[in-house]
Amino acid sequence: MAISREPYAKVTGDLTSDSVLLTGVTGFVGMELLVRYLERTDRRVYALVRGDSDQEVTARVEHTLLSLFGADHPYAERVVAVRGDITHPGFGLRGYSNDELAERVSEIVHGAASVSFELGLEASRAINVEGTRQVLEFGERCHQRGGLRRLSYISTAYVAGEYVGRFSEDELEVGQCFRNAYEQSKFEAEHLLAHARSRIPITVLRPSIVVGERDSGWTSSFNVLYWPLRAFAQGAYVALPARREALVDVVPVDYVADAIFALSQAPEAEGSTYHLTAGESAASVGELVELATEHFKRPAPRLIAPQVYHYVLHPLLVRASPDQRYRRALARSKVFFPYFAMAVVYDDRRSRVALRSAGIRPPPLRHYFNRLVEFALAAEWGRRPISRITATRHTAPPSMRWLGQGAPARSVVSR
Length: 415
Fold this sequence. Notes:
By secondary structure, the chain is an alpha/beta fold. It has a domain at about 20-205: Rossmann fold. The chain is built from 14 helices and 15 strands. The chain has helices at about 30-40, 55-70, 100-105, 120-130, 130-145, 180-195, 225-235, 255-265, 285-295, 305-320, 325-335, 350-355, 370-380, 390-395, and strands at about 20-25, 45-50, 80-85, 105-110, 150-155, 165, 200-205, 210, 240, 245-250, 250, 275, 285, 300-305, 345. It has a 7-stranded parallel beta sheet with strand order 3-2-1-4-5-7-12, sandwiched between helices. Strand 1 (about 20-25), helix 1 (about 30-40) and strand 2 form a beta-alpha-beta unit. Helix 7 (about 225-235) runs antiparallel to helix 11 (about 325-335). The two termini are about 35 Å apart. About 50% of the residues are buried.
């Protein structure tokens, strides 16, 4: 199966009955998806956003649009802020009835989630599992009211957990254990979707580690890969619990958003699951270390067997470090270390075949690593937020040192 339509062709629709509902629209991937639905379609977008008041919700959406497009964008009339919460029955809607909204929506992209690796299982389930249950119930209501063309669910490749070997796009339960509650809750959410596929049209999309845009480096989320890189830049690592040959599957957010948009519009993608991963382009831990040591001009850390590091070396390093900032960096990095010693390969053959003709493919990390780091340094690893419009307007090789000039517009990030 291949997507034959050009990825940037305009998709038209009836604003009153062919609208799309996006959850997680003020989050990192959600913002990129909003860009694509506004620039590549003429459809109305309902943005489900949490807030204490309609004014707060409207302000959050307006700030998101400002961050994405600048002050003179033409999209205000096509984006409708809807105050609601995916964890509440019927979204706890304010200003709309469930039936009224369901009659207008023909497509749902569910991206709202807790992505924290430190949240407990019950709290993760409340958002990622029960939230998905509410989205499915709304999807069925849409299907009954006027027909749901597609519900696209943004999952994660890490539903594979600690599985060893090749994990295919058709697999879900393979006896795996999980590193954290995030992985387990997303796995459980996919089980809900599997049972609902006979009732409504569903596509499941599984990104791996999502980082900034390949051209600008822009990100609003400095998690997973960024924390260890920041700690390494500060000199916190003399050793790491990692296997040199282990794969670090990283994809830029623009690839993920392009793929989600294309697959959500493709009729032939209904009922299938897609790995949005680096696949054969994935970097190894050894390559990532080389890229980081070259960029930051620091000596490479020793790579030590994870069990030896966790039970012997890590406690010694934390106690021996003279700088409290470094001790905090080591402690905070610990939750991300398991992702540098994995023995799983994400089989993305279905995705590659489907997206090939549209020219959507994941680039190797080495092609854009420096831009990621340059942006992170300019944004002070998230302490000095930089809007996407600022970053994209000033993208120019070979560096982004311009980011230090002037005060950038603030970006808005949802949790």
